[in-house]
Amino acid sequence: MSVLLAVEDVKVQRGGRAILDVEAFSVDEKEIVGVLGTTGAGKSTLLGVLNLTVAPDEGHLSWREEPMTGWRPGSAERRRISMAFQNPLLFKGSVFGNVAYGLRIRRMKRNEVRRRVLAALELFSIQDMVENNVLALSGGEAHRVSLARALVVEPELLLLDEPLASLDPETRDRLLAELKVAVKKMGVSCVYVTHSREEAFMVADRIAVIDKGRIVQTGSADDIFYRPATEPVAAFVGTENIFKGKIIKQDGGLAVIAVDSLEFEAVTDAPVGTKVTVCVRPEEIYLEKAGISKKTFSAGSVRNHLAGTVTALQTLGPTVRTIIDCGLSLTAIITRRSQADLGIGLGDSVIAGFKAMSVHILREE
Q1: Among residues 152, 199, 192, 154, which one has the least CA distance to residue 173?
Q2: Who's near 138: CB < 8 A, 6+ residues apart?
Q3: Strand pairing category for 189-194 and 206-211
Q4: 109: Cβ–Cβ under 8 A, 6 or more apart, which residues?
Q5: CA-to-CA distance for 32 and 109, rounded, in angstroms?
Q6: Rounded to an integer, what distance in angstroms lies between the CA atom of residue 324 and that of residue 311?
Q7: Is-contact 132 145, C-beta < 8 A?
Q8: Could you tell me if 12 and 101 lie in one domain?
Q9: DSSP code, position 297
Q10: Domain holding 338: CATH number?
Q11: How many domains does the chain have?
Q12: Domain endpoint, select from 194, 220, 236
């Protein structure tokens, strides 16, 4: 797949310090790239550079391997790009007028404007609202109009700055699915900026994690979720169990790691003596009540077994976040049905188990 837009060695400075320092970032043709980061990480500044509204102090951009220089309103390069924001930013009037605006300033013929507006509205199932006043729209409908307006001009690159952050989860998830279908149907490249890992994992083909103005990891959702490159990335994507340890045994790729007074088994080729950070996702931990006669996971591939006491239970809809004191604080997320079937309550003695393959290792520099 060919590269549509590439960023190389870009720096943006404010007050004498770099607020963006990106060595490399790219978007392929027809690809959705999620840019994931906390508030203040540099997401919006990066988006401004991509939208040619923020000129970098250093570095350059290229479009299909040709240098980009169009940091000015109305430039030919900017006309290839469309953008939508967290706030729909609709102006007074009809749905049709809002979506048609970009086409009208391009001086398109009336019949072509109407055809394209109706086609864009149909992408988000709101073609029957074409003459509605935008002041009467719900939040989800207003966002659909905003996205239709961004896509109706048939951009080559669509930039989205946390476009669904203000919506309730049900509306957000439904609109996110519609958006992905629409973008793929039109063959548009897209950069989707968000602080929500759920949104990034749902919509993106590839994810770039940004932290303190730097792209710290790029990869598939599985790469980011299960193989985070740094401890901050691991924490940000929900890896709650992060411990410091040292490899004390090595047997052909199966290592034993000392973590405080405990020992973990993990799949790694790191040699004995290596200092590591141990990461275990809470969903990867199995629980059973101590002392039950029929073991659910004590044999087979679950090589790590830690005895402990339940110190906290937090219900999260269909799941339960369970904190276990095993000599260190371990977090497991199990279903409510599993909790009920196992009869696990506060103060109960349990065995926490996880596979050696579930342990992700970061070598200490």
Answers
A1: 199
A2: none
A3: unpaired
A4: none
A5: 31
A6: 6
A7: no
A8: yes
A9: S
A10: 2.40.50.100
A11: 2
A12: 236
Strand-by-strand arrangement of the 66-67 sheet: 17-28, 3-14, 58-63, 66-67
Query: For tokens 């004498």, what's the residue?
Result: 16
Question: Which tokens hold the place of 117?
Answer: 């507006």
* pTM, entire model: 0.89
Of 149, 190, 147, 152, residue with least CA distance to 171: 147
| Residue linked to tokens 């199966």 | 254
Span 96-115, pLDDT tens digits: 999 999 999 888 899 999 99
Q: Are residues 229 and 251 in the same domain?
A: no
Task: For residue 161, give the CATH number of its domain.
Answer: 3.40.50.300
Domain around 331: 241-363
**Are 228 and 251 in the same domain?**
no
Measure the CA–CA gap between 45 and 181, rounded to whole angstroms. 27
82 and 156 part of one domain: yes
pLDDT tens per residue across span 269-306: 999 999 999 999 999 999 999 876 445 555 457 889 99
Q: Which of 72-76, 84-88, 304-308 shows the lowest mean pLDDT across its residues?
A: 72-76
